[in-house]
Amino acid sequence: MNFRVISMAAVIAVTLFSCIPARQVEELQSKYDKCDTERSAIMSEKRDLETENTELQSNVDRMTKDMSVLTKDTTVLGTSIRKMTKQYDKINRLNDELLEKMALLQKGSNAENRKLLENLQIAQEDLQRREDELKDAQRELNEKQMALQKAQLDLEKTELVLQEREKRVNELEKIIAEKDAAVKALKDKIAAALLGFKDKGLTVEQRNGKIYISMEAKLLFPKGSTTVDPEGQKALVELAKVLQDQKELEILVEGHTDTDKLSGNGPIKDNWQLSVMRATAVVKIMLSNSTIDATQITAAGRGEHLPVDSADTEEAKAKNRRIEVILTPNLDELFEIIDSGGATTE
């Protein structure tokens, strides 16, 4: 399975001084949701690999146990063959003795000769039976040895596959841990830089491997306006300074409104337009006060369609009127490891 990072920063279809139509915002959201889905797939892949590791380890334990049983059987058969070989030699000596006695007693009574011949026949039959047993035991020993060699080869092959799987899982876990640590460090850095705005409707959270910076509209805009007030500009400048050195981030600036309808008599016709213009105003301030690469940042309007509080109260509406800056780390390295693992021999 192949995964690709969806670059959400290259989607701005208008210049910094124009608004994004609803259709393009929906495309941006689709790509953003796809990125979330791929990250979930990555975590699912990691869990699948861990499950496969557990199953392979169970196979290794079973094969190790089988090999131990085969080794024990081989040892027992070897001991049995050595004992039978000694008995075979003893019977051969007895047979030689009987032949000698038969030669000496051929001149004796016919009754004694018949008895010796019967004993000789019995000894020869017993010798033949033991020879057959010895051959059967040798054949069984050979089969056990071949089974043991096959089990050893299968075990070695399984261990190689297990080692490769473990290597991939460890690489994935390491990168995910590093990404999570980097995201947490950046979140802490942003929280420290914006500490002075904490009680003014600004929050910084880390969720699903991303950082969400939410600023209530009262911190940034006068009611119904798309012009950021001086206090809000200070917060945006501080945020931009922290982000300007983060070249591996994708930055999405989303504008959100409440459900109150606009009159439509002024230059701003509806909540879609208001949310887009506010997001664009925020992007312009961040770009003009930092060295952030414009290809990293996207402005989008969500209107009233993604509230944080669905209650029909003034307090809920105030929470819903907000700007959200969503920071997504670059996952190219993680996808490369997953893609390379797709060619691994099962």
The string of secondary-structure elements, in order, is HHEEHHEHEHEH
Provide mean pLDDT, rounded.
81
Number of domains: 2
Low-confidence stretches: 1-18, 342-346
Strand numbers in spatial order across the main sheet: 1-2-5-3-4
**Major sheet summary line:** 5 strands, mixed
The CATH superfamily of the largest domain bears the name OmpA-like domain
Based on helices, strands and strand pairing, what is the structural class?
Answer: alpha+beta
N-to-C span: 14 Å
The Rg value, from CA coordinates, equals: 41 Å
CATH class of the largest domain: Alpha Beta
- Identify the overall geometry: rod-shaped
Strand tally, please?
5
CATH architecture of the largest domain: 2-Layer Sandwich
The CATH topology annotation of the largest domain reads as 60s Ribosomal Protein L30, Chain: A
Give your account of this protein's structure.
With 346 residues, the protein is of the alpha+beta class. The protein has 2 domains: 8-43 and 182-331, OmpA-like domain (60s Ribosomal Protein L30, Chain: A); 56-175. The chain is built from 7 helices and 5 strands. It has helices at residues 22-105, 110-193, 217-220, 230-243, 271-288, 314-320, 332-341; strands at residues 202-207, 210-216, 249-256, 297-301, 322-329. Strands 1-2-5-3-4 form a 5-stranded mixed sheet, sandwiched between helices. Helix 2 (110-193) runs antiparallel to helix 4 (230-243). The longest helix is centred in the N-terminal third of the chain and has 84 residues, at 22-105. It is rod-shaped. The two termini are 14 Å apart. The model is unreliable at 1-18 and 342-346 (pLDDT under 50).
